[in-house]
Amino acid sequence: MATSDENSGLFPIFILTMLAIPLVPYTILKLCRAASKKAKPIHCECSVCSRSGKYRRSIFKRISNFSTCSNMTLVLLWVVMGVLVYYIKNMSREIQVFEPFSILGLEPGASESEIRKAYRKLSILYHPDKNPDPDANKYFVESISKAYQALTDPISRENFEKYGHPDGRQGFQMGIALPQFLLNIDGASGGILLLWIVGVCILLPLVVAVVYLSRSSKYTGNYVMHQTLSAYYYFMKPSLAPSKVMDVFIKAAEYMEIPVRRSDAEPLQKLFVVVRSELNLDLKNIKQEQAKFWKQHPALVKTELLVQAHLLRDTAALSPELQRDFKRMAIIPRTAQGHGWLRPAVGVVELSQCVIQAVPLSAKKGGGGSPEGSAPFLQLPHFSEAVIKKIARKKVRSFQDLRDMTLQDRDDLLSQVAGFTAAHVQDVERVLEMMPSITVDVTCETEGEEGIQEGDVVTVQAWVTVKRGNGLIGALPHAPYYPFHKEENYWFLLADPNSNNVWFSQKVIFMDEATAITAASKAIEETMEGSGASPKETSKATKEAIEKVKTGSRLVIGKFQAPAEGNYNLTSYLLCDSWIGCDNRTSVKVKILKRTRAGTRGAHITEEGPITEDGAEEEEENDEEEYDEDYESEYSEDEEDARETNTKAAANGNGRQSSSESSESEED
Questions:
Q1: Bridge partners of 584?
Q2: Helix residue ranges per DSSP H, 337-440
Q3: Using alpha carbons only, how large is the chain's radius of gyration in Å?
Q4: pTM for the whole thing?
Q5: Where is the composition biased (Acidic residues) (predicted)?
Q6: Largest interatomic CA distance in the chain
């Protein structure tokens, strides 16, 4: 029975240990994240962003941010740990170790006469004949008599001095740290123990496995539904125009989960009238187009109307239910790297820019002497179409013209021509200081070889540098109409605009400097070691790379296999998903030589060239031509552009063929 009591007393210690193992590291991680957020503010501080309330830290917002489910659970678990520690501390006080010298009030090593004298003195106080109190009788029998016997009997005293117990060496005992009512298998307690074992050892792992499998079968590793990826792969076409990306974007399966209520019919009808000009409806058959639009799935209709209302910055007029639905569906489109198609990738990024800045897609159409349209101007605070027309009369027609002006000239333009107040001008300057200026330095080479030959593994190395007027490297964009915090993301694409193929793509992030330093150092070390550089040269190159990262540069490095022989006029794109008009495009000329080195991949290379690979390429080209014909019939708006491109390509091909035939005839 005593053993069961001891095992039952260990149960709180067991629970405390199991709680502390995951709780302490998780708490440290949460505190580190909270401390990192208290750094220098990296968001826009203009009056428009301040009125949006996204970055305002009121006492109520701080309480609401703290009162999350995870934080409250964390606090509750720490309270439970505190209660367990207090209980265990008090329990340890109740457990007294048998110490005969302290019971008799003596110092260790006392003589036998002192022991007998102390025993007689305590006997007068606690002996049953002298003190009728039952507690005194119990204390005398269990403590005083036992202590006197342990110190006066030679064998008992020797055992106590050697093993700490009058009876000598004690056997090793093992127990289960469970409460007493679970260890008693008689009656109902046996059923409780059985249920506990079944629940913890069988049911709990089974529930976790079912939840994980059900979620993994529904979502991908990027938390995107499999149905969404299937729909995007089906509707995404090689030459998809940016204006058509919205039609593909709203096909996401996540939007099908947005509730469709009968009470939303009238507000959506009013919203349709407001955003009708942005829906790309055929004005010649407007009635048929409207009927066709409303025949779509109700969730798709609701999604497109809400997104267009956000782009027109008209979400404030929505009903509370529609505003909640919009915040639920406010997700950002991502670039589809897997296809390798340039136009859809650029279109997705441009749609993301319009969503973040709440600018309609129609504003990106060029006009009035500005190739990028009025979209870059509309992301600035207090700007409107009327203001853009006013400053255009002063020959400020492109957004870059406005950015290149001096501070004084821009102040005079906005205050005198646009009619801005001093506060409005200051807001514009703050946003312009937040906007990034991007430079890209790209190189393509084969490591350890001179020139690039067919089939070589080409290494792409690009240094992307971001400069801002306020000195920040990573920052949150000016996005007062977007309901959530949004970090800037950049996409590096090396593509061939003529063939619409993306050769290489990579995401670039400026928010995490430590990760960028580690990645750049590792990449530079591997590159230098592969080229046979000395350790001193490798160390020097690594230090230079680290300094570049600290000053606002990021290293993009990757590989691709060189195509067939020829000169390729590529373009490197550095696209930002948050700002309009800040993208960078750089021309990259790559010359692929004929294979003369050994070690090519694929078929064996002879003097006549890789016949097997050429045949495969011809089959792929035929397939692409057949696919393009089907695609052009589906998207009639892009038919003229496609025909012009094919005509130019055919003309260039005929010219090359004729020149090659003439050169062969001259050789003959």
A1: 574
A2: 342-357, 375-378, 385-392, 399-404, 407-412, 422-434
A3: 39
A4: 0.64
A5: 610-642
A6: 138
